[in-house]
Amino acid sequence: MNMMLQYLDGAIIAGLIAVAFVLYHALRRDRRKPPEAAGGWPLIGHLPILGASGQPHVTLGDLADKYGPIFCIRIGIRKAVVVSSWEVAKECFTTHDVIVSSRPRFTAAKILGYDYANFSFSPYGSFWREMRKIAASELLSTRRFEIFGHIRDAEVHSSLKEVYKLWANKRDDSGTVPMEMKRWFGDTNLNVILRMITGKRCSGEDVDEEEVRRWRDVFREFFRLTGLVVLGDALPFLGWLDFGGYVKEMKKTAKEMDKIMCQWLEENRQKRASGVLKTEQDFIDVMLSVVHCADLGGYDADTVIKATCSVIMAGATDTTAVTMTWGLSLLLNHRDVLKKVQDELDAKVGKDRLVSETDINKLEYLQAVVKETLRLYPAGPLSGPREFTEDCTLGGYHIEAGTRLILNLWKLQRDQRVWSEASEFRPERFMGTHKEVDVKGQHFELIPFGAGRRACPGIAFGLQMTHLALAGLLQAFDVTTPSDAAVDMSATFGLTHIKTDPLQVLFSPRLSPSLFR
């Protein structure tokens, strides 16, 4: 009996040792950290290799080929995890969505974002939730989107008529007229979003062109500057040293932007005080009505209104125009696809009227072209920076709280396991094998607008404007490049991914002149 008890005691002890051994190695495995990319320097980390090519998403994509879909880099003294696969992205925005829904604090967000009152830059918390709710339910809701549908139609049609007028007055012997497209796309978007936010237009007989140029330049600078890495963000102890003069530029742009927003806000208040009735409420009207009932997190109402309207303004103008420019560039380099788009427009819309928003759902091939554009050239190839607020396990690796998250959309959306001929422009894939894949954050192999609770709230606006502007342009005009040359697809990187060279296009009308009067 005693021998049996001794045997059992020994078995129990051995079992406990085995369990402890398994738990120890399981815990060690759970604490395994992502591999760190080689090439990091003391103190400054991987900043030199990220800035060397001017294409950090491409550099990080090459590193992903070497280290896998999740690896670590250092941006100065800050650790960052780079995610390049849809499986790990899905884990981020489902299992760990709350943990990765905060923004890190950085210089551009503080200076240009009204000290983080701009909800796009604000950390995750009660203020962000409140402002996101207002944006989603009051400003960018389906109902509000439908109310402003006639504005989008009217402004796109007006822009097309201006192109026709330019052609009628300045066409050359070949019957074409040149135009720079990034400017045209930007102005069309600017007109739409200006009317939605303030009721103003940026073109027309009563418009001060110098003032409009100022607006355009300020919001373009906003996006350029928010994409820069300031020395103090990477090395806080050198924050006093404005290397490159970027902080000075940010302060100047922030001051100009605030002047514009103050002017619009004051004009709106004066109209309300005078009893002038508007046919429809713009965004500033809505904000003035709802913001006083909201939890403003210690900010004053005017600051919140200016911060919210400025980020919607900048985002809607710049990122959408960038996508339109890439889309047209791809079509000009694939004339067979361009012809298919125009054939679809002729068949589904006809040539006796200009295309409108109600036609877009019928234009399946055009929608496929836009999806493929967003797959290959997302406006932001590296999604907005996020920060882990708790320790967690991601992709089998232990991630510490405070680590930055960089999602390489450019690499993720060119995954050869998902997309055949992944680097090729093939819109037909969205008519067949990937027909059900959308871009709204539910299919993680294609998330150009991000995913999870921090996904871009302006998805509907961006998609509809891109579809409508491209449809209108290609229905109304035949387009080509000077000497039928291929479009240079090289790009520069900031917060958005823009073409290095302007997109010059030659136009000639393909519809009756009566439609442009």
Give a brief rundown of this model:
The chain has 517 residues and is α+β, with helices and mostly antiparallel strands.
What does this structure look like?
The chain has 517 residues and is of the alpha+beta class. The chain has a single domain, classed as Cytochrome P450 (Cytochrome p450, Orthogonal Bundle), CATH 1.10.630.10. It has 18 helices and eleven strands. The strands form four sheets. The chain has a four-stranded mixed beta sheet. Helix 8 packs antiparallel against helix 9 and helix 10 crosses helix 14. The longest helix has 32 residues. It is globular, with a radius of gyration of 26 Å. 43% of the residues are buried. About 2% of the residues have low confidence.
Q: Given the C-alpha coordinates, what overall shape results?
A: globular
Return the average pLDDT rounded to an integer.
89
Biggest sheet record: 4 strands, mixed
In total, the number of domains comes to 1
Order of helices and strands: HHHEEHHHHHEHHHHHHHHEEEEHHEEEE
